[in-house]
Amino acid sequence: MTNFNRRKFLLYGSAALGTSVLLKACSETPTEGTEGETTSDSGAAASGDTIKVGILHSLSGTMEISERTVVDAELLAIEEINTAGGVLGKQIEPVIEDGASDWDVFKEKAEKLIDQDKVVTVFGCWTSASRKAVLDVFESKEHMLWYPVQYEGQECSKNIFYTGAAPNQQIEPAVEWLIENKSDKIFLVGSDYVFPRTANTIIKEQVAALGGEITGEDYLPLGNQEVTPIVAKIQQAMPEGGAIFNTLNGDSNVAFFKQMQAAGLGPEQYPVMSVSVAEEEVRQIGKEFLLGHYAAWNYFQTVENPQNDQWVTAFKEKYGEDRVTNDPMEAAYIMVYIWKQAVEQAGTADDLEAVRQAAYGQTFAAPEGEVKMNPNHHLSKWVRIGQVNDDGLFDIVYSTDAPVDPQPWNQYVPDTKGFACDWSDSEKGGKYQMES
């Protein structure tokens, strides 16, 4: 494998359904319930024999293709923890809400989980649009969100723990690898919302610094599948071939990869590097349409270590041999365990400030390798690039030999170069100027 210098990286982003779902015990199958229904008396979230946590993801709409799987991963972690005795001697009681791929619904459901269900924390969101929609809720109510997906950075909230990649742990290494190994001509394709646009701002700065060329840039509304004009623009901009950096999210990817193949734009001449397509998306789109293309993540199902072997086995035993694991699922699984460890160290689930402080420095032997929570609320994570193979999984073509520390504030973008985040120091907080 070829090593390259580590630099700096990104994240994601509508429908209907306000059904609230509550698990009385996480080994049960989720069933529909009444809005605001709980299984315990009102009062403190950690009262009685249970500790209530919220799970807030899209179980309908354009993002269901991706988000339903992270709920499965979170429930597996909760089931394992409960089977092993729970947290502080209490069982975890998850309250599941459907964000319905609609950012206003995400905000509404976040408020419900905090105010009505009185959860002690929320595991949730996928797109950056949904995270931005709930950010004010968690900050105004001084509550806690654990967010499991790689994203565009340029944010560092005291009320959010980010367990997916920052841009320097995914996007930037992917750009550098493309330029060194495939092409210095890159066409940018993305969904039209905060993650792809911010990611592409970073990518344009990075490509310029590396001496590459951005040959075009185009966006689709989230969920839109009218990709033919974009494919035509790629052919026109790069008639001899070149690389495509793909930040499309949700089911827009289905149409994109099928149309790329129909137009004869194969991975040999037009390799696509995706940052929101993982094993589950390959399974649903069809491996025949993605064979030979690339993705950048921190984790692939094909990672070889005992922790991953154990996790993949446990996941398939619970959900079926035909199921696959992927990076956002792994980050979701990780965050439940790190929250549990922080609660146990703090000795409380209700004192969120104590839990925050206890989270700093927590390590976990994750399926990707050991990870560590930093005072900037982001994990040190491994960086990997994979190529879709005949099995619909990823052959790992590049991997770092150690975890990479996160940089929430991007060091390519002039407005944030030189800034960092440290919530363990009140004089630094969410954004401070590093010493040169």
Give keywords.
20% strand; seven-stranded mixed beta sheet; single chain; alpha/beta; disordered N terminus; 19 strands; 436 residues
Indicate the low-confidence ranges by residue numbers. Answer: 1-44
Report the sheet-strand fraction.
15-25%
Please outline the major beta sheet: 7 strands, mixed
Rg: 21 Å
- Which whole number gives the mean pLDDT? 90
SS field, number of helical segments? 12
Helix content range of the residues, please?
25-40%
Strand order of the largest sheet: 2-1-4-3-5-6-7
**Overall shape:** globular
How many strand units?
A: 19
Task: Give the CA-CA distance, first to last residue.
Answer: 33 Å
Would you tell me the structural class of the helices and strands?
A: alpha/beta
Question: How would you explain this protein's 3D organization?
Answer:
The chain is α/β, with parallel strands linked by helices and 436 residues long. It contains 12 helices and 19 strands. A 7-stranded mixed β-sheet has the order 2-1-4-3-5-6-7, with helices on both faces. Helix 1 packs parallel to helix 11 and helix 2 packs parallel to helix 3. The protein is globular, with a radius of gyration of 21 Å. 55% of the residues are buried.
